[in-house]
Amino acid sequence: MVNTTIDLGHGLVLRNPVMTASGTFGYGEEYTDFVDLSQLGGIIVKGTTLNPRQGNPYPRMAETASGMLNCVGLQNKGVQYFIDTIYPRIKDFDTNVLLNLSGSTLEDYVRGAEMIDALDKIPAIELNVSCPNVKQGGMAFGVTTEGITQVVSEVRKVYHKHLMVKLSPNVTNIAEIALAAEAAGADSLSLINTLLGMAIDAERRKPRLSMVTGGLSGACVKPVALRMVWQVAKVVKIPVVGLGGISNATDAVEFMLAGASAIQIGTANFIDPAISVKVAEGLKNYCECHDFEKATDLVGALET
Amino acid sequence: MKQTTDFKVQDRKDYGDAVLLRLRSKNQLLTILPGQFANVQVDGSSKTYLRRPISIHDVDDANNELSLLIQKVGEGTKRLAELKYGDKVNLVYPLGTGYTMPAPNDRVLLVGGGIGIAPLFYFAKMLNKKGVRPTMLLGGKSKDTLLRLADYEKQGEVFVTTEDGSLGEKGFVTAHSMWKDHEFDKIYVCGPKPMMQAVATIAKEKKIWCEVSLENRMACGIGACLCCVEDTVDGNVCVCKEGPVFNIDRLKW
């Protein structure tokens, strides 16, 4: 019998290392026909901002080689709507329900985090630091050590539960950014968010996305994600949650060997809506076949 | 209730640029409403990473079979059109909302353009079951693009337009002479967006209730990714979940 429990610290304990990534799993409700949520370590619900956002115009998606680009633009109805309408429907799911929090100003992040802090059944926030900071010319908070230090430390002051910080891969030195987030008070780090990309329709000589550029995800980003998880896990002391192109249990094992304590399934949910539970099952089988008594024994077990 | 199910190709028929696939499941089919669609897994090649949303063309509950009428447009539909007898294909179905069923006495017009005629076949069959005999107005580039016409004619009166005049009246569906001497209570449209918008304009002028079926580009098909949104009077909504069928009053056309 393999012990699959993963303790990410500060009150966030997963029954297995498999979570679903924000923006790919709705509020969990969309998947209950396909997935027994109690078989997952956790779900991270749609990126939420303090105020409602309409998101970007259509077209928001372009398929690419083994992946897809999106420029959804954080369409959501705001934190208060989440608290009033969605939270009562999902709070009793038999899994950890994390909320992904985004903002375009420091004040929005802080106010949003304060409001989420009061929700008993949300054990953690995943802080999306890839959003443009409107007061800093639209540069993302999470691409400089100063920016990430500021947003994480301010949220840390008001948020008293597990604070997971989701890192942007669109940086020169991911380890430096990770260390800054750790020093500012993050309890764990999840990576990677989408890679900035672009697609063109040559026949029409036009971009395929309304915003021209968008976030790349899917199987194609896995090698980049794996490399970044490995680089970050080597330097930080807090747990790392790996994501980026994970499509099966072997991919999940690779991320854990590279140093991830848990993983998230993202775009693969679109291809097989039941993939998350299959990965959880496959991870357990891998541990059994390779005589790992605990899933935690896989973490960082890469032989180099 | 939605499901991920493996089907086997039971039969295929070629119609020039399109193929009709009859798919059988080992399990009992879930209830499928006319206008709903399936998200079809292609083959996992690098160029066909995502599923393809395809409308459900026909349903045979007794044999656990459903049919898809697929036009070869891009890489995904080309590969799906290569499926042979016995091949396995995985569907997430049934997805989206269906057409709103009319009242028994309603005079119903179904307007289809190109491959957009596909979902109207199952709809016409279900209407007949409820005692409503629909009128159909089907348009295509040429007579070769109007598939299964004889089968549609069994479901009700059919009017045809082709752009090259090779069958029926020459021109677009909106210019057909039948508009002059027919009256309808409900119009249902599926086809290219400009064609649906043109029919919607006629419906608005004549103050006729009208639903259209959108085909915005999708990823998940179940309302999770928010990629396929349409700008409506209620803001951006997912075509895969709140549609694909929309009343024209809800759209900003």
Give an account of the 3D structure.
The complex is a heterodimer of chains A (304) and B (253). Chain A starts with 5 loop residues before the first strand and ends in a 15-residue tail after the last helix. Chain A is an alpha/beta fold and 304 residues long. Chain A has one domain: Aldolase class I (TIM Barrel). In chain A, strand 1 (6-7) and strand 2 (13-14) form a beta hairpin. Helix content of chain A is 30%, strand content 21%. In chain A, helix 2 (106-117) runs parallel beside helix 3 (145-158), helix 3 packs parallel to helix 4 (174-183) and helix 6 packs across helix 8 (275-289). Chain B is of the alpha/beta class and 253 residues long. Chain B has two domains: 3-95, Elongation Factor Tu (Ef-tu), domain 3 (Beta Barrel), CATH 2.40.30; 108-213, Nucleotide-binding domain of ferredoxin-NADP reductase (FNR) module (Rossmann fold). Helix content of chain B is 17%, strand content 34%. Chain B has six helices and 16 strands. The longest helix of chain B is centred in the last third of the chain and has 13 residues, at 193-205. Chain B starts with a strand and ends in a 6-residue tail after the last strand. The mean pLDDT of chain B is 97. The A-B interface holds A 23-26, 30-31, 33-34, 54-55, 57-68, 70, 72, 75, 218-219, 267, 269-274 and B 1-4, 41, 46-47, 49-51, 92, 216-231, 235-236, 241.
